[in-house]
Amino acid sequence: MTKIKCISLSKDAERILDLFIKAKPPELSVSKAIIIAAQEYISNHKKDNSRISDFVSDDVSSLVPSFFGDLEQWKKIIEKIPPAELKKIQVRHRQIDNIIRRRVESLL
Predict the structure, then answer these.
(1) Per-residue pLDDT tens for 67-83?
(2) For the chain, N or C: smaller number of CB within 10 Å?
(3) Are residues 90 and 73 in the same domain?
């Protein structure tokens, strides 16, 4: 028996889902494409790999755009974000910068 599942989508999630639907092969239904994407995600993010929750913070996730989001959107958010949340982002930015710098140095 087929079941129906409903999800709510933010504007950004709706945009991403629309891009996903356009990118899927035309012979696949949206349902099948989502299942394949979920299976691929699960196989690529096993126990020792990163998880989706590694990239989501309950503290500021609703306040910031996606990591590779439009820079103008980042600029608007950073100009308006409360100081305490800005500090959290600044600390994380430094942490990520240090990781990237060490990786680049190891490649040189």
Answers:
(1) 787 888 888 888 888 88
(2) N
(3) yes
